[in-house]
């Protein structure tokens, strides 16, 4: 690995499958945000935009849309280790998840669960099992709903999914925002300062969590 530390078995397997994507960051802690909604006027996409805008000094949050990611097909697993071919959007997703110091997953709640869009993206980057880009990846969860529930049930299911990938899911602070209409203006700009402060606190906690759980992968 580029910091001189010996590679773990999982890191060696991941490199063999996808190549060496992860780069160490000397000054900036990088977070990739994935919003699990395709809606044009999505509160959750707006919440991710607010996280990007509000990121504290030393933390850089970027995002990737998931509309072009095809449905997961296990037939592609046979190409792991051979360099592909994979769909272009999947290649980009794998590269960006691998390169980020941590993930921020922002999910709506559909029928008491996370969106299929987000679950599908996680299925793609969960391969190879035991050595995927999600292996030992620090992850924070957030979500906003029109009603009072705040996507709590969806986030609970995501936590269970991420146990299977051996990801490091941040426990606190919890970002489960209800009554979304009161938090944003007509242009979906976040107006609720309490929510903004919570996003900042979560990003700062995520950076500290990553330093504790995956110190070789974080220098920011």
From TrEMBL:
Pfam family, one: FMN_red
Signal peptide per UniProt: none
Annotated Gene Ontology cellular component terms: cytosol
The NADPH-dependent FMN reductase-like domain, residue ranges: 30-178
Molecular-function GO terms, alphabetical: FMN binding; oxidoreductase activity
Superkingdom of origin organism: Bacteria
InterPro entries assigned to the protein according to its UniProt record, in alphabetical order: Flavoprotein-like_sf, FMN_Rdtase-like_dom, NAD(P)H-dep_reductase
Protein name, UniProt field: NADPH-dependent FMN reductase-like domain-containing protein
Biological source species: uncultured Solirubrobacteraceae bacterium
Lineage: Bacteria, Bacillati, Actinomycetota, Thermoleophilia, Solirubrobacterales
